[in-house]
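Protocol step 6 of 9: fold each sequence in the batch and record its structure tokens directly after the sequence line. For illustration, a two-sequence batch is reproduced in full.

Sequence one:
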Amino acid sequence: MKTKHSREYGPFAPQRIKLSYQKPNYKRVKCTINGIPVEKMVDVRASLTDFLRNDFGLTSVKKGCEVGECGACSVLIDGESVDSCLYLAIWAEGKDIWTTEGLVADDGSISIIQQAFIDQAAVQCGFCTPGFIVTATEIVARGKRYDRSELRRLLAGNMCRCTGYENILRAVEEAIEIEIKGRAEDYETDLAVDPDNTGHDPMIKD
């Protein structure tokens, strides 16, 4: 026979502790998001993920683990990939922030890493894709080749449960080669226009 517990004891007993109400504390934040200067009042407890999704509708910033493990919420802050779930919105003051939406030009053209993901079929369910593209954008921007083990380490902060990473690695490698080739062509063009150009910025004094 099961014992019946009275509501007068244990967790059902009347509590004398009063619940306290904490008034939200807001702060004005000025930053640049996808090239556009913005200014917004934000709860000091809000994460950058919620700030970007709820206040600006940038839903490419996914809410995944929310503990900085999956990388689905990755954004570029001053050129570096950051897990926005661990980054308070108020820390964005004066920062230059980019999400996957900002990688699309006004004419609709996409970045080389986005195109590489399409060409290499590096997308399945797509949930992790924006985070991978953001992290890969930082890697590609360095204009440096990496071997597979190095790329795996650089992408270790982003998780994918579908593709097994092979196509993602191929996409990043393809984008890196396109970036390096593009820089070489730009340099050759500059030399053709100005043969005396040795790559030294004339605005910088020795």
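Sequence two, same batch, same settings:
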Amino acid sequence: MSFSIIVFQGPSASGKSTLQARLGLPRIVTWTSRAPRAGEQDGREYHFATREQMELMHRQGRMLEINEYRGNLYGTSISSLEEAGQDGQVRSSVMEAKGARLVKELLGERALLIGVSASREQLERRLFERKVSIEEQQFRMASFDEEIAALSQCDMVIRNDESQFHVAESIIDYIRLGLEQK
């Protein structure tokens, strides 16, 4: 089996991006309609486009999915997924459950879906420690149950609670080693 993309999914603050970074694979660069933040470059953090451009790309069938978050669109282009792995280099992405499911439908066995979970209490504490506003914490945690339920679509689920960080990191290290040996 040869993967071309590894997708991380799970609730907010579960550690998806942290585990993705530990894996050390190039990221699929996704799209957004929000303005670049200081230091961000088009094509590195995101492909920046207008809402109209992204909606047009979606209508033309060039976007796998688009989601609205806090008034901005975010999405993944089909071409970025189809090109993943063509150069022999596996890519990675962090996605919501719907997007991860669509990637699996598009790429089948070439996609490895890794769910990342932690307890509600752990996630709430992480958001608090990040100094996320109470309103934002409530917004992010509102989908917790739905996101945990969606982990059933994953090929594997990593428990990333505080007491199991070392286990989660070890699993990612083993995956990285396996990819390096192929």
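Proceed to step 7 once all outputs are recorded. Observation for sequence two: The chain has two domains: 1-28+88-182, 29-83.
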